[in-house]
Amino acid sequence: MGIFSRRQNATIEPTPAAGPGVAFPAAEAAGAALDPALRALTGEWTIDRPHSRIGFSVRHAMVTTVRGAFADYDSTLYFDGAQPSRSRAELVIRVASVDTGVEQRDAHLIGTDFFDAFRYPEMVFRSTSTIHEGVESFRMTGDLTIRGVTRPVELQLDYLGSVLDPFGYERVGFDATTTIDRTDWGLVYNQRLEAGGAMVSEKVRLQFDISAIRSVPVA
Fold first, then answer.
1. How far is CA 7 from the centre of its chain?
2. CB-side exposure of 37: number of CA atoms within 13 Å?
3. What is the Cα 169 distance to its own chain's centre?
4. What is the rounded distance in angstroms from the CA atom of residue 119 to the CA atom of residue 210?
5. How far apart are CA 24 and CA 194, in angstroms?
6. Nearest 5 degrees, angle CA 192-CA 61-CA 109?
7. Which one-letter DSSP state was computed for residue 85?
8. Residues paired with 56 in a beta bridge
9. pLDDT confidence of residue 64
10. In angstroms, rounded to a whole number, what is the distance separating the alpha carbons of residues 98 and 106?
11. By the 8 A CB rule, do 158 and 137 touch?
12. What pLDDT score was predicted for residue 58?
């Protein structure tokens, strides 16, 4: 993700067509000085899917980690670099697009034991506020809805920088992470191991690795 950092002279591979947008949160200064470069980023942005990842990781059988991502999602982002509290974010994920690299496991995840994609096809995150904590660091709060249950979550959000690529795209990078207890959203399925412990951890780490392209206003 460091390829987006203003501390590097990175050449970004172009993407002919960016995917939907990603929404960004509301932010309110918490005493830390805002980077003046953030003011120039004020506006609407669209997520560049080929250079982004909406993913998760979870411990399996107590000894390993399973990683996955969602390929199909829509998002909207308005970022205000002068007053981050005016920023807005929304991310709508089609849970049936989950990909962990194993078809049988993916089929289990979208079934009734976990996401129950037939009844609850979408997982939604909507920002409610963001606090500026450091030069390139924010704390984002929002509502996460899974299986019809909505609960607040708090993400650590880091601004990675911006760049104008050789094809004229203005790009910006963000990383966000949080850890949730999946049982809070009704994902309670598990199997107990003979030696003790659970087959699937209740703790799930969510990871948002975002590359966004500035949206061109419609004339």
1. 23
2. 11
3. 21
4. 28
5. 44
6. 85
7. G
8. 68, 206
9. 87
10. 6
11. yes
12. 93
Q: 35: Cβ–Cβ under 8 A, 6 or more apart, which residues?
A: 135, 136, 159
Contact 35, 190 (CB under 8 A): no
200 forms beta bridges with 60
What gap in Å lies between CA 75 and CA 82, rounded to an integer? Answer: 22
| 158 in Cβ contact with 207 (< 8 Å) | no
What residues are paired with 164 via a beta bridge?
A: 170
Q: How many CB atoms lie within 10 A of CB 69?
A: 18
- Separation of alpha carbons 44 and 217, rounded Å: 9
Which pLDDT tens digits describe the chain residue by residue (219 residues)?
333 333 333 334 444 444 333 434 333 434 466 777 788 888 999 888 889 999 999 988 767 899 999 999 988 888 888 888 888 889 999 999 999 999 999 999 999 999 999 999 999 999 999 888 887 888 889 999 999 999 999 999 899 999 998 888 899 999 999 999 999 999 998 787 666 567 788 999 999 999 999 987 644
CB-facing half-sphere around the CA of 200: CA atoms within 13 A: 20
